[in-house]
Amino acid sequence: MAAQFNFQPITRGDTLLATGFTLKTTDPVAVVDLTGASIKVAFKKNEVLIEKIIGSGVTVADPTTGYFVLDDFEFDYFGKYDYDIQITFVNGDIATMVEGYIEVKKDVSRYINI
Q1: Is 10 in contact with 104 (CB distance < 8 Å)?
Q2: How far from chain centre, in Å, is Cα 7?
Q3: Tens digits of per-residue pLDDT, 45-63?
Q4: Which long-range contacts link 23-28 to residues 24+ away (Cβ below 8 Å)?
Q5: pLDDT digits 0-9 by tens, 65-81
Q6: Torsion on CA atoms 84, 102, 23, 89, rounded to nearest 10
Q7: Virtual CA dihedral for 54, 55, 56, 59, nearest 10 degrees?
Q8: DSSP helix/strand/coil, 65
Q9: Which residues, including other chains, have CB under 8 Å from residue 44's CB and lie 6 or more apart?
Q10: Per-residue exposure over 51-88, b if at least 16 CB sit within 10 Å of its own CB, e if not
């Protein structure tokens, strides 16, 4: 079962600051070794799909402790995005480790020169 993590709401055009994750198993509690693994973070709202992978929006900071960072980025469209984090391990196993949502609020100043 995937862990649940919901981001705090942000405003469209604002930067979602880098967010670090440490992946752990639940039984027994142990870190998930990410050495050689692929990581995909996907945000989806209707037809809008945003994918981040290692080297393009995801940075593995310490693979042996299960620590990686979803790098800074911005949302171009407002609304509620569901997301998940999927890991493909070296042995070919695939696991959805985290899921949740983020609410991107409509901004007032989008087309105003300020």
Answers
A1: yes
A2: 9
A3: 999 999 999 999 999 999 9
A4: 23/66, 23/68, 23/87, 23/97, 23/98, 24/66
A5: 999 999 999 999 999 99
A6: 20
A7: 60
A8: helix
A9: 50, 81, 82, 83
A10: ebeeeebbbbeeeeebbbebeeeebeebeebebbbbbe
